[in-house]
Write a structure and sequence with these properties.
261 residues, binds NADP nicotinamide-adenine-dinucleotide phosphate, alpha/beta
Length: 261
């Protein structure tokens, strides 16, 4: 069977999601648990994870596994704890931060924070997950990137770089994973109304609620394919504009978002 058609089910093992205490990750964790999954939920705030666990109404459960994704040893420890009781069937590496940064207020320190959480944070969990799933020749890994990773977007100098990096990372890994029985997906959301985007001062086109985003993600994980991108129309528009030559691309995006002086 084509690895991109493999669908992970609760009977295959547990799910692990990072960035589960708020926004998109919280909504995905709840939907999975309500569908019967045992979901190991990671974020730094244990209090928020405990209150999330109490919200499950379906047949599954949420088990808090607090940790910082920038701590590689902690990510390995969480995976070891999960796999002590059974296999990991589904991993959603979703933790990420966004700090708007224009050229005028660019700092290496702010960029570095985003690189550490968004990029290194994903690789810290990927390392033990890949070893576990490749050894079992099964499993599904999904990484939350963004449509901001297709090409550079305004206010997102370092953020777009991290998300473009994640898309490339998943594509490169897929080249090997197709032969190894492990499915990898990249999730590219458009604008979702969460704490992360509450700092945006511009009107966000095609803005979605976290529950809607979670439905797109969980439904997408059950369908064949590599990319889960939504809202569909926004993703297609950005993909199409992204094909323009560089100067035309910069002009159209500035115009579309009312950017500049
Ligand atoms: N919202 C959007 O419009 C949008 C669009 C495209 C892509 N995305 C991506 O979707 C993902 C989720 O975003 P969101 O909008 O849901 O953000 P959010 O509401 O700010 O939630 C971020 C989550 O990540 C956790 N987190 C942050 N830093 C962490 C760290 N160092 N270690 C562990 N967990 C950490 C947070 O919990 P703690 O603070 O408790 O650690 C929280 O659970 C991110 O990767 C983001 O880039 C979002």
């Amino acid at each position: 069977m084509n690895v991109f058609s493999q669908v992970a089910r609760p009977s295959d093992g547990a799910a692990w999601i990072t960035g589960a205490s708020g926004g998109i990750g919280r909504a995905v964790a709840l939907r999975l648990a309500n569908e019967g999954w045992t979901v190991h939920a990671t974020a730094r705030s244990e209090t928020n994870l405990l209150s999330l666990a109490a919200e499950v109404t379906g047949s599954g459960r949420i088990l808090p596994a607090a940790g910082d994704v920038t701590d590689a040893a902690r990510m390995t420890q969480i995976l070891d704890d999960i796999t002590r009781t059974g296999p990991l069937a589904l991993a959603i590496l979703n933790a990420g931060i966004y700090t708007p940064m224009r050229a005028q207020n660019f700092t290496a320190a702010t960029a570095r924070k985003m690189f550490d959480v968004n990029l290194a944070g994903v690789t810290n969990a990927l390392d033990p997950i890949l070893k576990h799933m490749i050894a079992r020749k099964s499993g599904h890994i999904a990484v939350t990137a963004s449509v901001a990773g297709y090409r550079g977007l305004p206010d997102a100098a370092a953020y777009s770089a991290t998300k473009a990096g994640l898309i490339a990372l998943c594509e490169a890994l897929a080249m090997d994973l197709v032969d190894l029985g492990v499915r990898i997906s990249v999730i590219n959301p458009g604008f979702v109304e969460t704490e992360a985007t509450s700092v945006n001062t511009f009107k966000m086109p095609f803005l979605m609620a976290p529950d809607q985003a979670a439905n797109r993600i969980v439904d997408g994980l059950k369908k064949p394919g590599f990319e889960i991108a939504f809202p569909r129309r926004f993703a297609v528009i950005l993909r199409t504009i992204g094909l323009l030559p560089n100067q035309a691309y910069i002009w159209v995006i500035r115009k579309m978002l009312g950017w500049g002086k």
